[in-house]
Amino acid sequence: MQFLHSIYFLPLGRVQRNQLTEMLCLRFESEKRLALIRAWEESEKTKAENRAYKRHNAVVLWENSKKASAEAHLKRIEEKLDRNKAKCVEKMQNKVAEIHRTAEEKRAMIEAYKGEEFLEIEEKAAKFRTRGYSPKKYLPCFGS
C-alpha cells in the first residue's frame, strides 16, 4: 500500500494514475495471494511431516513391541527346553542308576550261585573221597 501513496506525487494524469493504481493493486493482490499460497504450502508440508513423524514413531513402537514379545517368547521357550532337558537328564541318570543297581544285583546273584555251586562241588568231592570212587562222566562221547 505504500506504493499507492507514493504514486500521487508522480506527475501523471488522472487516467494514468488510475491505471497505475489498478495495476499496483492487482500486483499487490497477486503477491498477497502468492504469499498465502506459500504459507498454506509450508503449513501443509509441516502437517505432512508431522504425520509422517507420528507414523514413523508408531512403526518404531510397534517394532520394539513385537521384538520384545518375540524375545520374551524365545526366553519362555528356552526356559521350557531347559526344564525339559533337566527332566530328561534326571530321568536318564535314574535309568543309568537303575541299570547299575540291576547289574549289581545280577552280579551278586551270580556270585551267590557260584558259591552254591562251589559248595555242591565240594560236597560231592568230599563224598567221592569218603566213598573212595571217582566221578563218572555223564556224557562219555565227549570224553577223551
What is the CA-based Rg, rounded?
56 Å
| Arithmetic mean pLDDT | 87
Total DSSP helices: 2
Ends apart, CA distance between termini: 146 Å
- Oligomeric nature of the chains: single chain
Helix-and-strand structural type = mainly alpha
Q: Roughly what percent helix?
A: over 70%
% residues in beta strands: under 5%
The major beta sheet can be summarized as: none
Strand and helix order: HH
Total individual domains: 1
Which residues sit in consecutive blocks of at least 5 with pLDDT less than 50? Answer: none
The general outline is rod-shaped
Instruction: Please provide the count of β strands.
Output: 0
Family: Belongs to the remorin family.
Keywords: Coiled coil
Protein name: Remorin isoform D
Domain Remorin C-terminal: 32-137
What layout of secondary structure does this protein have?
Blueprint: H1 2-7, H2 14-131
Structure description:
- This protein has one domain (2-126).
- The protein has helices at 2-7, 14-131.
- The chain is built from two helices and no strands.
- It is mainly alpha-helical and 144 residues long.
